[in-house]
Specification:
about 325 residues; alpha+beta; 60s Ribosomal Protein L30, Chain: A; Phosphoribosyl-aminoimidazole Synthetase, Chain A, domain 2; 2 domains; 6-stranded mixed sheet; 5-stranded mixed sheet; globular
């Protein structure tokens, strides 16, 4: 059972009288009157992070991926709560010191403050993060408009290569190993973007499970489709060099998750303000496609105008 089916069948009815819950179909809870936005995420070892050999890096990864849910809604994160389940080995004094230092560094970097949490003993390592921010408005899912331009921040695909290095499925990448590992553990979330994003985005989501899968989540209730152009989807120079050297296809690296870049749509007449915002903030923002009518299938087009079959749409939460 897919997570959407699970929520729809068993939990949606529990929130139907609470507008702030957004039908349990968005990244956050949003109380408009109070200007309060909340997101919560759970991270399990072997599923959401590879191992715990570098606890300080794992903590940075989960903090950034958690507050990314607020950033993509146009909300600046302010507070967070963290709960952890582990044992004497994972929560050793040495590891706890590394975790504490990493949290302090993330707090300084993103202007957030720890406000509470919980710890429990378990032989299965997991963390839950609750992130809180304040805003009078947010960018919702399912608000794309026909003929909207589709944009994405930053580059995607680097984190996937970092994961493959950890899994030892990629043996050696000369002079680039640390780069890809850093992109896996420390994603470049867009902390300076929320206020500007509110000015032009019609709908938005962060790319956590994969470009295609998250795109479909973003417009899941709408009778719309999309057309994306493979050559416009941004990847880093290091990833491009790696693909060329090993004769690999870009399409197999653009929708594997853990990118935490922001995917959004905007009216055609917003292109100039988006371009200017990109220059002002020093953020790479790429136009990668269009929102189309549901009379057409959602497609990705390659440089020769051919429709691509993307084998991997993203990580799917199946139960």
């Amino acid at each position: 059972m897919h997570e959407f089916e699970l929520i729809e069948k068993y939990f949606s009815k529990l929130s139907k009288f609470n507008k702030s819950a957004l039908n349990l179909n968005d990244d956050v809870f949003f109380d408009k009157k109070k200007g309060l936005a909340i997101s919560i995420d759970t991270y399990n070892e072997k599923t959401h992070f590879f191992d715990f050999k570098n606890p300080e890096l794992v903590i940075k990864k989960i903090i950034r991926s958690s507050i990314s849910d607020l950033l993509c809604k146009g909300v600046n994160p302010k507070y967070y709560f963290i709960s952890g389940s582990g044992n004497k080995k994972t929560f050793s004094r040495k590891n706890l010191s590394k975790i504490s230092l990493a949290l302090q560094q993330e707090q300084n970097k993103y202007g957030i403050t720890l406000c509470g949490g919980d710890t429990t003993f378990s032989n299965k390592l997991s963390f839950s993060i609750t992130s809180i921010g304040f805003s009078k408005k947010i960018i919702y899912r399912n608000k794309a408009k026909f003929n909207d331009d589709v944009y994405i921040t930053g580059d995607i695909g680097d984190s996937f290569v970092g994961l493959k290095i950890l899994q030892k499925k990629i043996k050696t990448i000369k002079n680039s190993k640390n780069y890809f590992l850093n992109k896996y553990f420390k994603p470049d979330i867009q902390k300076n973007f929320p206020n500007d994003l509110l000015k032009f985005a019609n709908t938005s989501i962060d790319i956590s499970d994969g470009l295609i899968d998250d795109f479909e989540k973003m417009i899941n209730k709408q009778k719309l489709s999309y057309k994306l152009f493979e050559d416009k989807i941004p990847i880093s120079k290091k990833l491009n060099d790696y693909l060329k050297k090993n004769k690999l296809k870009k399409r197999d690296f653009i929708s594997n998750g853990d990118d935490y870049q922001i995917l959004f749509t905007a009216n055609v007449d917003k292109s100039r303000i988006i371009y200017n915002t990109s220059k002002k903030l020093g953020i790479k923002i790429s136009k990668i496609g269009k929102i189309t009518s549901n009379k057409h299938n959602s497609i990705i087009i390659d440089q020769k105008g051919r429709e691509l079959l993307v084998k991997k749409k993203g990580y799917r939460h199946e139960f």
